[in-house]
Structures are given as structure tokens and as C-alpha cells.
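I am still getting used to C-alpha cells and would like to learn alongside you. To get us started, please write out a protein record for me. Once you have written the record down, we can walk along the chain together.
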Amino acid sequence: MSAEKTYVEDVNREFYDFRYEEHAGYKVASGLTEEIIRQISAEKKDPDWMLEFRLKSLEVFNRLKMPLWGPSIEGLNMDNIVTYVRPDTERMHASWDEVPADIKDTFERLGIPKSERESLAGVGAQYDSELVYHNVKKEVAEQGVVYTDIESALRGPYGEVIREHFMKLVPPEDHKFAALHGAVWSGGSFVYVPPGVSVEIPLQSYFRLNAPGAGQFEHTLIIVDEGADLHFIEGCSAPKYNVANLHAGCVELFVGKNAKLRYSTIENWSKNMYNLNTKRARVEEGGKIEWVSGSFGSHVSYLYPMSILAGEGAQCEFTGVTFAGAGQNLDTGCKIVHSAPKTTSHVNTRSISKSGGVSTFRSAVVVGAKAAGSKSSVSCESLILDKESRSDTIPAMDVRTNLADVGHEAKIGRISDEAVYYLMSRGLSEEDAKALIVSGFAENVSRELPLEYAVEMNNLIRIEMKGAIG
């Protein structure tokens, strides 16, 4: 029995690891061929231009080599991955009561409807390759806010808007898994916030991958127009299987002049998941993008949200925490491109490694020749909980003007024995004391989240810390 297998059995992840027997309404064969792409396109009722886009993306995928910059993904064999699984439901539902019982129970147990009722302006829930539920509050829709599944938008009145923006920030030629996404994408959300509209409470999409040996390739496209304001939350989870699963979604964010977008993510994929997700934002003059990212799950992650500060005075804030345990190699970070004058970026991350987990923070800050007066600061702190674990920091800076202020700071440490002893003297067990210290270390992320998501993140930390003594 492998060390990774022992770890998974030792840790109680039942809240996320429950699963139902697969009841696929339709799924394609494993592997990646032109015939499979045409089958997916026919299922999605794509317009002709999208089928052509998919087929060109397949050509790019076959031409490009596997990425070499991160941890090994040799265990991922695309011949064994099913790229499209439609759950056994005929359509997306706007009423929660109409969703099939086992799918509904999955999201009920994850707290999605409860969150919607109590604190969200709208929710989209994806199960395997399809959105099974989508709804937005009446008062938000009356503001002119569009929040729907991207496929309905593609086939409806927003088709030309989708065509104008789809994979323009993340072209298929960007890397092999961007090309894969362009070929097999399915599901995801489309959001448009009109000029000057402030959405006071968050929108959320939740992605659940239930099928073993499958991939999930949702596409999220958000346009926040001039002077508008939005908080969008993304949640992800999957049960544990003994075969590889793949997540290669794509997020494209367009932030208009003087607009603001906060994009929060709690990723809790299972430990057999290869998470090769691509996220990118373009920010116009005076606009601001805020990333809040928590990465806990997956076997291997490549995740580097990118911000293009395209207009004068554009801003980016990136706040993240990564927790790598046994059998995990999480390669995460961010990239920021300062393309205009007086742009600013601030990066503040925490990483935690235990039980042999590997956490790598990889950042790139590019300041162009036309970005005079720009400022960027990058701060990353790592906490290593034992001798078997590892943490690395790989910063890159490319500054093309002398009129910029760019800085990087990195710290690596261990849990203080004195702090543990003090908490134990106040009645906490050693395990709870360490969990509390780790939660405090990650507090810069949890304080940026709505209360219920901060609670979920701290629950994940306690789950991961169980059995971490020694």
C-alpha cells in the first residue's frame, strides 16, 4: 500500500469525498480524436464557427508539446480521459426542485442551495460536463445583469459577444492544455454587468466532477463594463478515485474602465486530480482586478492567474493560499503584465506543506517600456510542517523602464514550539493548536472571503491538519 493511499485513508474527507454511482445520460469514448470533437460539438448544438474553432484547437493540441515548466504530469494519459460526460438530466433547471435527486443531494450536501438562499445573488451548478442548475435573483436581473450558462448565451442574443471575446485572452496556441480546452470545452458561465451597475452580493459557480476517469473543461467569461462592480465566487470539488481525473477549465475576465472585479476561488479537488486550469484578466484604465485564491486539492496543479494591466492606473491585487499534503505537488502563483503608465500590483501569498507535500510559488512580473510610474510588490511566505515536505519560490521580473518600483520578498518558516506549548497550556490539544496556528497563517485569504467561505476554508485546514503531528 503506497504512502499516498495510506494518507488518504487516514484523513476524514467524507464531506467532499462522497459520490454516487455514475448515471451518465451520454458520454463520448475516452481519448481525443476529430470524431469525438464533432460528437461534442453536435451535443452542444454549436454554431458553425465554434465547431471550426474546436477542430483548429485540436490541431494545435496535437502540434504542441507537453509543458515542462512545472511538476511531472506523466501519470496523465489523454487516451484514458473521457472529455465529455452529460449527466442523466435532459436540460438545465432554474428550479432547484426539478434537479434529479442524486445530483440535487450532492449540491445540498455541499451547501449550495443554502448559500444561494442566504447570501448569493445567483448560482450556477455544474455536474460533470453540464450545467444542471442556474438561477439569478430577480432584483439583480432587473439591474440588467446577465448571468447564465455560456452555451445558452452562445446560441442566444449574446452569441456575437461570446464570439468577440471567447479565448481571446487565452488563445489555444498559449499552451497545450489551452488548446485542449478550446477543443473540448463544455459548460461554464457567462456574466455581463452593465456600465455603472454595482452587484451588492456575490454570484457563484460551483463545479463538481463525479465521473471517474473524466475531465472537466468549463469556460467562464465575465465582462464588467465601465464603472461597474462585481464579486464572483468559484468553488470546485470532486470525490476520490483510483484513476486520474483532469480539470482544464478556462477563465477570461474583462474589467472595463474604472470597473472592479473580485474573483474568489476555493479549489478542493480530490487527490487524483490533475488541475491544469488557466485564468486571465484584462484591466482597462482605472479598473481593478482582485484575485482571492485557496488551493487545497489535486494531485498536481499548474495554476497561475494572469492579469494584464492594459490601461493607465489599472490595479491588481492577488491574495492566495496553497496547502500541499501527502502525494501533492502544487505549482501555483501568478503573472502580472504592466502595459500602461501608473499601474500597480500587489501580491501576498501563503503556502503550507506537510507529509511530504511540495508547494511551489511561481511568479512573473513584467513591466513594459510604456509603463512608467508603475509599482509592483510581491510577498510570499511558506510554512513547512515537517522534514519530508518542501517549499520553493521561483520569482521572475522583467522590467523595461527605469521609472518603476518593483520588489519581491520571500520567507520560509516552521511552526513555533513555543506557540504550540502556549496554546496547549490554555487547554488545546497539540493537533488543535497546530491547526489554529496554520489557520492564522492563512488568515490573509480567509478574511477576504464571505463568512461562509472563510468557514469552509478553515474546515479544510482542520481536515488537512488531522494526523499532522510529528
User: Anything to note?
Assistant: The longest strand covers residues 374-384. The chain has 14 helices and 25 strands. Residues 3-303 form one domain. The chain has two domains: 3-303, 416-470.
